[in-house]
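Two proteins were folded this term; both appear here.
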Amino acid sequence: MVELADRLSEAAWKIRNLEDYDRRLERAAQRFDEISRERLEPALMVYETALKKSERSEDEIRGMVREFRETFEDEEDPLTIPRASAIMSVEGDGWFFGDENLRVLTGRLLGQFQHRVAQYNYVDEREVARRWADGYDTRLFVRRRIHETEPVVGVVGGLDLTLFQYLRVAAGGNTLVPTENVFRVLRVLGYEGDAYEALAHAEGLALHLELPAPIVGEMLEDLGRDGFDDFPEPPCETAEPEEGVPSEGGAAAEEKPSPAD
């Protein structure tokens, strides 16, 4: 455990001492802020996550979500989870790139969150989603590598760890998505392992950097996309004593008086 903490501390030092660290941090924060502003309704967070399973481009998916909002947005009747679920149950597969399986998956996910919201009295949908994303139980299921049995989203099936984490981040969770670019940077920093280990290392790195995990995730994604591997090396903590200079326990120890003296 101590060795892991030391490695995380060293990795945090390498990132913090990048020449363009401030610029990368600012860019990551802006990127995350832009994405977060588009995720207003929990129903659309679920919808967007389900659409990502199609493996379409990010622009296509966000464009579809944006079109859905503009089509059904109503100031007097907001796009709550029940309303979005009702709309999707009668609309065709066109809102899901023609894939019926995506429509079924979205409906099941919305149903799970609708049930979750009903368990809380007078709590906003967004707050319910955030509590799920950051809740102890959710983190425990991920830490134990059994996210597919998590009782809210996991039991629906169809979401691998990457999509599961994508939804947690979208819902406001202090975590990140273990993408291939994140993997790439962690390997350069000396970490190996599967997606669960990569997630644990990256979250630990965020703690050492004293930054929100989603922003660290955006920084790692940015570094990985650039193929960056030239991290600075921390200075050596120990140095050889100079010639003629007594080391600790040397001459000073010899001059120490004996008990008899």
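Next, the second protein.
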Amino acid sequence: MPLRIFLKTYWELPDLPLESEMAKVGVQLTAKAYFTLPSGARVNFKQWQLPDRPSLRESFKLSLMLLDMPAIAQAHLDPVKVTAEAKSKNALTQVQIQLPKVLYPILVHSKNDNFWLTEQIPLAIINF
């Protein structure tokens, strides 16, 4: 689906269908976002907290407006906050984090470090 049609469709989507679609997004992110333990075991991120409906609608609306601006303007949206949790049964000293490309670029905050994941840098190692 072209970006313009996607943005317009989801901007105009009623509340309940939008909530349903966002729940699907959470399920897809849970399936694709994980960290890898030194043993090679994967631990998926869960309990995704995505922006609320008004914030999403505003983001869709502003994105549509940006599509109509000349490329020379180089405007961009403000970042949106997305959080998730992951739990391991074992104490962690180091993990390798990998997130779906749909989230790139994303600034990752951990207790010990902040870093960007992008298509050029799709994974990072976090030491605890």
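The first strand starts at residue 34 and ends at 36. The first helix runs from residue 3 to 12. These notes refer to the second protein only.
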